[in-house]
Amino acid sequence: MKFSTRSRYGTRLILDMAQHHGHGPIQLGEIARRQNLSLKYLEQIIRPLKRANYVKSFRGSKGGHLLNKPPEQISVGEIVSLLEGGAFLTGCAKDPTRCERAADCLTRYLWIEASQAMFTRLNQITFADLLNGNKGRVAEDCLNAPASRPV
Predict the structure, then answer these.
(1) How large is the average pLDDT for residues 105-118?
(2) What region, left, alpha or beta, does residue 22 occupy, with left being phi > 0 and alpha being psi -120 to 50 degrees?
(3) CATH architecture of 5-143
């Protein structure tokens, strides 16, 4: 499974804003330079983040964008789910009417369970965790998790 560039870049956008939280509004151009991302793409990504009240914007020469919540109150799972259009790995897991086989499909429940497990974990990781050097702990937790049986 691969996340779209939208959620990967959106996560980097929020993490950059979290790194500069409390220092005033940040212009997207600064973030684009620091993260080596397209400004035009960041302009598209920030719209749903603003609509969902994760980011607030200010106009003017000293304007820019700020996190609307502290980094410890925003989980990676929230941002990825928002930018991916939901917390599901497959369309049928979210909406069974998208597939005529959904009622009889044994693998649909596998995708539902996998989606729940992944987003449960992503929802436990905040941007403050990543900033505070807990990324090692985050990775260690994942590596030390009980091994799952092969599918």
Answers:
(1) 86
(2) left
(3) Orthogonal Bundle (1.10)
